[in-house]
Amino acid sequence: MAPITRLVLDVLKPHDPGVVPFTTQLGDLECVDAATATVVEVDETVKTLRVTLEGDDLDLEAVREEIQDLSASIHSIDQVACGERTVDDPLLGY
Amino acid sequence: MAPITRLVLDVLKPHDPGVVPFTTQLGDLECVDAATATVVEVDETVKTLRVTLEGDDLDLEAVREEIQDLSASIHSIDQVACGERTVDDPLLGY
Amino acid sequence: MAPITRLVLDVLKPHDPGVVPFTTQLGDLECVDAATATVVEVDETVKTLRVTLEGDDLDLEAVREEIQDLSASIHSIDQVACGERTVDDPLLGY
Amino acid sequence: MAPITRLVLDVLKPHDPGVVPFTTQLGDLECVDAATATVVEVDETVKTLRVTLEGDDLDLEAVREEIQDLSASIHSIDQVACGERTVDDPLLGY
Amino acid sequence: MAPITRLVLDVLKPHDPGVVPFTTQLGDLECVDAATATVVEVDETVKTLRVTLEGDDLDLEAVREEIQDLSASIHSIDQVACGERTVDDPLLGY
Amino acid sequence: MAPITRLVLDVLKPHDPGVVPFTTQLGDLECVDAATATVVEVDETVKTLRVTLEGDDLDLEAVREEIQDLSASIHSIDQVACGERTVDDPLLGY
Amino acid sequence: MAPITRLVLDVLKPHDPGVVPFTTQLGDLECVDAATATVVEVDETVKTLRVTLEGDDLDLEAVREEIQDLSASIHSIDQVACGERTVDDPLLGY
């Protein structure tokens, strides 16, 4: 299988745990080299995060499980990149 | 024939298979070095993906067959680049 | 004659041949190092393509003939660059 | 734990201490390599600062305590990056 | 005299000669290293071109004469750069 | 104390001294490596300048005194960066 | 005195001399390494130019005199940079 090198996820997260432990837990996954979470919306009970994960061979199921263990859920998968290098979409600029 | 080095496709995909297995299946094609899929629209029964493929010599027919095997279809081809290097369109910026 | 290093063309093309064989045929011309075609408009019977060609010494007549052989026509020439290097227009950004 | 490499914080700060001692105090924390504070809003009694901190292993609690010692408070955490390198969110451009 | 290294010209050109021979003729001038012409407006009898010329020591009179020999005329000079290197206008971005 | 590496100031300055002697006087301060002043607003009796100062260890008090000696005043401090390197705010782009 | 490394000037110039001799005369000043003039407005009797000058140690008085000798005048000074290197204003992007 072509290894997944980037995942961009829309995640719904309750206010607890906070965005910092949430992100570092994802960063602790063995398949994740770098994780960045940006808060894009704050509602009464949930936060919407854009989560970008990069690695040499990301494991979606391990990511999904970790997110569920953190009481959060993947609302949508916005971008997937795989292969021996990461290519941006030239018409979208990323 | 001048080898195709980049294809940007608009793809209609049912919700199943998901965007991750869809993208990695394309990335598994021998001619594909890197594949990136970005979800640009979500409707009730289908998702519209922008799919960017790069390689040294992309095989459109192999790509099209794989997409059909994944129950999806190429809605349109948005950009094709071929030759010994990849040139961007200077007026569009990509 | 100063060699032409870049041509940006607006091309009208019937739906057949498709944009992929159209682009690779242009890329096959001896004078063309790289060819990129982007679909910018789709009408009932024709597609409008922006075609960017780069090479060390592009031959406009060979390009025009090939485009005609492919049942298409150059609607307009949007940019021409020539000389020992390619300079962008600083006020337009390309 | 995956080390935190970047924190972007929204901070509410009374007018005293000023933004310069505030920023240098944060920069003095052992875990902080670089700190940048930008004033984004000025109200009668408080200033809203965007604070970006980078380091090899940022300690959120040390940062939070220092901010409280400076009579200010973290209003929200806007972005967290962790891992062996820092990845930007490709869809947001940062 | 400080050598002129870049000229950006607004040129009015009848439809004949075409933009390709027009640009290569300018590129043939001994003082011109690179010439790029972009079509910015098309009227019934004339085209408006933005022409960017770069060289080590551009000769405005030779350029003007060549443009007149090509039945065209300089409508305005939009930018001139001279000196031992080319500096962009930092407030305009070019 | 973490050394200040960049200060961005909003300065109100009477028309005399002019922006050139004003900037070079700031540039003469021992702690200042580079100073750039941009005029952002001109009123009847004052000019508003955006002043960017960079150095290895900027001394705010020396800067403030010099500005006062030049009959001007710091209206606000817009950005402060300190530490062993200068980090931009990724969400603001600077 | 900290040497001036960049000056951005708004200049009002009668139509004669033209922008090319005007710019090259400025480029001829011993303190000027590079001069770029961009026409930003054309009125009946004057042109407004944005003039960017760079050098190791620009001499404002020599620049002003030369501009007056060319029948033009400095309408305003938009930016001044001085010091051992040139720093851009991070909030304005230049």
From TrEMBL, chains A, B, C, D, E, F, G:
InterPro entries reported for this sequence:
DUF211, MTH889-like_dom_sf
One of this protein's Pfam families, by short name?
Answer: DUF211
Its name, as the record gives it, is DUF211 domain-containing protein
Species source reads: Natronobacterium texcoconense
